[in-house]
Amino acid sequence: MKTISQIDPAVLAKFRKGCVIPAQPLALDENRKFMPQYQRALCRYYIDAGVGGIAVGVHSTQFEIRKPEIGLYEPVLSETSKFIDEWCEKRGRKILKVAGVCGKTEQALYEAQFAVDNGYDAGLLSMAAFKDGTVEEMLEHCRKVAEVIPVIGFYLQPSVGGRILPLEFWKGLCAIPNLLGIKMAPFNRYCTFDVVRALAESGRDDVTLFTGNDDNILIDLLSKYVIGGKELRIKGGLLGHWCCWTKKAVELLDEVHALIDSGKDIPAEMLTRNIQITDCNAAFFDAANGYAGCIPGIHEVLRRQGLLKGVWCLNPYEVLSAGQSEEISRVHDAYPALHDDEFVAANLAEWLA
């Protein structure tokens, strides 16, 4: 069993303060074969951008990697773990390594143990396999996985495979000792509040909230919740949106933390920027088409920078939607302060070497 106390203290402190954790995409070639060189380049990009962690084997990495006929879960996670370690050693720093953990209990326990064996610090635990599960069935599942690896709870939006999870579930999850944090990505204010309320009423101060609400990133980070006299904040982000333009995401979070620490009022400009970020996310994630092109969309952003060879997904029918490429061009040009093209261009050759 790996526990929270076994996570490197500096890495844990960074997580508790709040950090950027990109949900890493899968690098494929035109034949939909794994490209380790580009997966490694993404790791190097994220580390040099200043992230506090990287999440692998999650939605952005494509759940299809687990299919037996594809068989990429193990090689992608094991190789990526090595890539992270190698570059962190070269740069003299460490980050949190998060592995996606999916499926019913037998599969999830296998994935959790595989993650521990390959040096991962925590498991982002999806409940998508429990479409019709009771609260107690889901909590028992979570308890068993938490006996293997520190758990980050995950509220995945229903439109991409998640389900509505009631307040009672989150209260029960907050009672699990090896719970490291919770990523909230329901894209729903009421559901997000359920998670924050459950943590507030649990009395715990050792569970860190991360936003996964890619449609409302900056407001999540700026907001202070006060529930029954208990103050809570969403400290960082574990986001698909932050797997591209990542350097700017790190700078944004640093700016948010400095503003909160100063005690000053939130500038109106921040609210405007929140809308601009949401506009970018609508293009990246293909909100106009029910998120059908969300993975190829982030691939396209990275492809334009040279960090991926193409937008190919394991599912050949998962492609950019009509007009999505034009929307990505529009937001790129409309909000130049939000992209990190210059940073990528200056370092790409070293990352791909």
Sum this structure up briefly.
With 353 residues, the protein is an alpha/beta fold. The protein is built from 13 helices and nine strands.
Describe the protein's architecture and organization.
It is a single chain. The protein has 353 residues and is an alpha/beta fold. Helices cover 46% and strands 14% of the residues. Strands 1, 2, 3, 4, 5, 6, 7, 8 and 9 form a 9-stranded mixed beta sheet that branches. Helix 4 links the parallel strand 3 and strand 4. Helix 2 packs across helix 3 and helix 5 runs parallel beside helix 6.
DSSP helix fraction: 40-55%
Cα gyration radius (Å): 19 Å
Sequence of secondary-structure elements: HEHEHEHEHEHEHEHEEHHHHH
Number of helices: 13
Strand content: 5-15%
In quaternary terms, these chains amount to single chain
Mean pLDDT: 97
Give a quick account of the main beta sheet: strands, pairing sense, barrel closure.
9 strands, mixed
| Basic shape | globular
Q: What's the number of extended β-strand segments?
A: 9
Report how far the terminal alpha carbons are from each other.
37 Å
Give the low-pLDDT segments: none
Main structural class: alpha/beta
